[in-house]
Design a protein that fits this description.
CATH topology of the largest domain: Thrombin, subunit H
GO biological process, one term: proteolysis
Helix content: under 10%
Strand content: 25-35%
Structural class: mainly beta
Radius of gyration: 17 Å
Number of strands: 15
Protein name: Serine protease 27-like
GO molecular function, one term: serine-type endopeptidase activity
Distance between the termini: 41 Å
Low-confidence stretches: 1-17
CATH superfamily of the largest domain: Trypsin-like serine proteases
Number of domains: 2
CATH class of the largest domain: Mainly Beta
Order of helices and strands: EEEEEEEEEEEHEEEEH
Mean pLDDT: 89
Largest sheet: 7 strands, antiparallel
Organism: Brachionus plicatilis (Marine rotifer)
Keywords: Disulfide bond, Hydrolase, Protease, Serine protease, Signal
Strand order of the largest sheet: 2-11-10-13-14-15-12
Length: about 260
């Protein structure tokens, strides 16, 4: 377990730029790892966001890309691309009592990947533009996006979200975290024969009881790389809860993400 980092002085807030991987990306000033299906610390995982559907409430997770954009799963917005349907809570820990450092934003644009398939859940990625830019703080931080050369072999991943703690259960009030191993491509295909490992990555092994679940969709699967945290995957799908799952491989979509941000 890593000790909590205590800051000796206030850090000035930095206005983010409009590219992916701004200098501030991937920081965890309040990082503290707790193994396996545990409640996260307040102020940790600063890129995690909660997506709210205005006629229902909380539905999915997502990650801060930069000051203006959120990345999530396409199946979270499938059939409902009107941006007025959505709001985001950003930087919070407790869904029922949003902390003072957290912010909320409306959405002005929703871009689902044009090749997303609701049958196979391939290309399960979407971008959402915020109505007002974010100011980065120690509690609100963008995540880094790995490029196509990223190799997660032998590494551990961390997934976070407010999803249910068991299949069919109620969503969590507090942000949860779980550590899971990345699976090799061959093991991933063995577990899920339909998976294209070029565009997806698997994490979590059968029988370990560690997984994401309903409500975690769209949220981050991250890995530490040279002191920065990168978005290795976006929570997409699995069979039940507790035996690992399938995540959109964000490195494959690096250029698509960059193009959409630049053009919109």
């Amino acid at each position: 377990m890593r000790p909590l980092i205590i800051l000796a002085a206030l850090v000035a807030t930095i206005l983010a730029d409009s590219t992916i991987n701004p200098p501030e990306c991937g920081r965890r000033p309040y990082g503290n790892k707790v193994v396996g299906g545990s409640q996260a610390n307040q102020r940790d995982w600063g890129w995690q966001v909660g997506m709210n559907f205005n006629f229902y409430g909380f539905i999915c997770g997502g990650s801060v890309l930069n000051s203006e954009w959120i990345v999530t799963a396409a199946h979270c917005v499938d059939g409902y691309l009107n941006p007025s349907y959505y709001t985001f809570d950003i930087g919070h820990h407790d869904r029922n009592n949003i902390e003072s450092w957290a912010v909320s934003r409306k959405v002005t644009k929703v871009i689902a990947h044009p090749s997303y398939s609701d049958r196979t859940l391939q290309n399960d990625i979407a971008l959402m533009k915020l109505d007002k830019p974010l100011t980065f703080t120690d509690e609100i931080v963008p995540v880094c996006i790995p490029d196509g050369s990223a190799d997660f072999s032998g590494k551990s991943s961390w997934a976070t979200g407010w999803g249910t703690l068991s299949s069919g259960g109620s969503v969590s009030r507090y942000l949860m975290q779980v550590e899971m191993p990345f699976l090799t491509d061959s093991r991933c295909k063995q577990k899920y024969s339909s998976v294209n490992t070029k565009v997806a990555v698997c994490a979590g092994e059968t029988g370990e009881g560690k997984d994401t679940c309903q409500g975690d969709s769209g949220g981050p699967l991250v890995v530490e790389n040279n002191g920065k945290w990168e978005l290795a995957g976006i929570t997409s799908w699995g069979y039940g809860c507790g035996d690992g799952g399938v995540y959109t491989r964000t490195s494959y979509y690096y250029n698509w993400i960059q193009q959409q941000i630049q053009n919109n």
